[in-house]
Amino acid sequence: MLMSKNCVSLVKHHKWIRPEGHDTGIKVFNCITKNKEPLIVKNKNFVTWYTCGPTVYDSSHIGHASCFMKLDIIQRILKQYFNLNLVTVMNITDVDDKIINRSNASKVPVQELTQRYEKEFWKDIEELDISKPDVILRVTENIEIIKNCIEKLMKCKKAYQAENGTIYFDVGAYSNYGKLQNISSENPEHEHEYKKSSMDFALWKSAKSGEVYWESPWGNGRPGWHIECSALASHIFGPEIDIHAGGIDLRFPHHENEEAQSCALHCKTQWVNYWIHTGHLHLKDSEKMSKSLKNTMSVSSLLANTTPQTFRMACLMSHYRKHMEFSPEFMATASTNLQNYINFIDTCKNYLNGLITVDVDNNAMEQLVQDSAEIIYGALTDDFNTPLVVKTLNKLVSAVNITLHSSKTHSSVSKSVNVVVILNLVLRTLNMLGLDLSYKKHSESGSDFVEIMNILNDFRQNVRQLGISKKDQQLLEMCDTVRHNLKNSGIILKDHGKVSSWST
């Protein structure tokens, strides 16, 4: 990171500068212009992405999980749909006021506390099938990098040391503050005792008695929260980042302060080209989910009552920028959507295997594929509109189901290739979004399970045909009982005339 010692403020107005480079064809909401802007990346061979990671002083809740899930969905879209080589970096804040307070209250050493909750965080991420970042940077392992950035800000007169020993960023020496969010003028009655301005923020906090600290040219202390992300992101990506992401609650002051100090550090008018912020998760008829409101639900509690795929579907059904309402009804809808897709896949396979014989209008099917694919492309290029993608898939599945379950049967062995095309479109889109609805093994020996189910299905099929031929109601009721009991175990039996099939 090279910078001039005579670094000065370069801008007077809050403007977003459209970057030069490769136009991805995607439009993303821009919190500075308040419009959707073309996503242009500096280098078409790779895209830089930085995410603000967790402060590991407590267990994560599903509000955190929804943020990381939605960012994971966007990353998958960029990588798998638009074929962009995305390089992702995340920090872990393992020293902070909250961590120190929790350590003191629980009488657990800081390092032991942070290691415990970081391990729990990654376990949650894995169980939710959220991809881990390519690079993970812990604050305590990169203190020298952070101190170097603070020293450079001191040299270019963008930071100062107050009487209490703390180093503050001088907002008054930077003329483009308030870029990401409108900020009202400060009230002189709330001036801080040691700061030049109440808006100045700490880069290096002077150590208090008994607290963890590191040595520095300005005395013993530890880094402030905002400088951590700026220093670590700049260390990996340099003076410019394509995408910086986090929850909407981080836009101010965290991201605002990151942008200000990083622009000052690199003598640039723009450090991050695109900010992506996810909406809050709300409980039904309640405020946002947060630890301060004491209304949180842990990830483990969530997964005790639902599946990771159902939670992902719920996140897909709500736009990443919008607040997401978490309720039993909403989760039930997400679960129903998933089951409809599973049933659709099974129906298509039964058609292709000859268990369902119907006339298919190839021209109508071909048009359906074309229209659906175009809508999906338009939705994903329009600020990652996943709710529209889900709606489009639902309509597509419904239309094909109506055809395949119609009474217009035929005896021809020919099959419509468009059913295969539609099935592939649905599977490919769901897989790209992180939903794998392919067959899951129900035991360690998956092949044994399949073999056993085939034997059971064939036996029930023969018993059912015997009951039909002899008009034996008792045999037919027994077959229905087997089907009902297997459904309770997640296995679906379907009868197609004289033939039966099963699916999970």
Secondary structure elements and pairings:
Blueprint: E1 22-30, E2 35-41, E3 47-51, H1 62-81, E4 86-92, H2 97-106, H3 110-127, E5 135-138, H4 143-155, E6 159-161, E7 167-169, E8 201-206, E9 221-223, H5 225-237, E10 241-247, H6 251-266, E11 272-278, E12 281-283, H7 299-303, H8 308-317, E13 324-326, H9 328-352, H10 362-381, H11 386-404, H12 417-432, H13 446-470, H14 473-488, E14 492-496, E15 499-503
Parallel strand pairs: 3-4, 3-10, 4-5, 10-11, 12-13
Antiparallel strand pairs: 1-2, 6-7, 7-8, 8-9, 14-15
Helix pairs in contact: 1-8, 4-5, 5-6, 8-9, 9-11, 9-12, 10-11, 10-12, 13-14
Can you characterise this structure?
The chain has 14 helices and 15 strands. Helix 10 (362-381) runs antiparallel to helix 11 (386-404). By secondary structure, it is α/β, with parallel strands linked by helices. The protein has three domains: 22-161 and 225-324, Rossmann fold (3-Layer(aba) Sandwich), CATH 3.40.50.620; 334-432, Up-down Bundle (Four Helix Bundle (Hemerythrin (Met), subunit A)), CATH 1.20.120; 446-503, no CATH class. The strands form five sheets. It has a five-stranded parallel β-sheet with strand order 5-4-3-10-11, with helices on both faces. The protein has a four-stranded antiparallel β-sheet with strand order 6-7-8-9. Residues 43-334 form the tRNA synthetases class I catalytic domain.
